[in-house]
Design brief:
This protein has 15 helices and no strands. By secondary structure, the chain is an all-alpha fold. One of its GO terms (cellular component) is plasma membrane.
Length: 319
Amino acid sequence: MTTETTAVKSVAKTSPIPLQFSWGVTLAIVGTFLFALKSIFIKLSFAAGADATLLLAIRMGMAFPFYVIVFAVLLRRRWALVAGSDAPAFPMPIVIRSLLLGFLGYYLASYLDLSGLEYVSAQLERLTLFTYPAMVAALAWMFLGEQVNARILIAIGLSYAGVYLMYGQEKSFTPDANTGWGVFLVFLAALSYSLYVLFAKPVMQKIGSREFTSLAMIGSTFFVAIHFLMTHSIDDFFEVQPIVYVYGLVLAFVCTVIPSFMINEAILKIGATRTTVIGSVGPVLTMLLAVMILGEPSSWKHFAGMAIAIVGVSLVAKK
């Protein structure tokens, strides 16, 4: 066998690995970009006359059939696996926990986030939400007894120092706006989502991530519907400007469903660490889009605060 033939075979054997890696990087980049669009389309929806509750109802109402279909398919597969046994496809206590966790992760967190965006810029909202891994680390120490070392403490400090720096700059841009209240609402949204992340993992390990996510989204839609009916007339859902439905559709699928699958696939192909590093540019993308599309003011302090917070979150994500 010649050296040339050996080299050709060697390339043939190793070429799928670089291809898989590059595909994973591409998925992570595109998924991060689509996630970054969320705050932009929420702001555009507000400008078109929607409020937080109405927009959340439209967004969840459009995504609801998708998750019902996904869960129905998964349930049918599970029934096939347990056919002939007395074991239920999904234990009822696990189903109830999944539905209730949907309250924290996809109803309460989303509502607080949208409400906060009515008071702060897309840039500040995205950065405040981005610090949730630091919050998860603190909650794991409080509730699960996990150790918090000096690196984690530094990471938490940097994360919120970055938010504070951007908050101070935005406060100077819009002194009459209720910026503090907006940041507090988004902070509560990050807290709600952090609790969801903390307590969802054991449930996902029992029934699977896709099954859990579908149940959580179905449960959250139920809570959204109750909230909407308590605060709005049913006619409000149909009397909004048509463009809001377009924005709601984009938020439901382009900014939520599609990138979530992309990011999960990227994690499988290139690992969680690389995916997290790529995802760190998400707030920067949101900042650039907010400046270009929404015309939001920005300054070097915005970028400095963003950089400091990204370093902090990266320290939390690093093993």
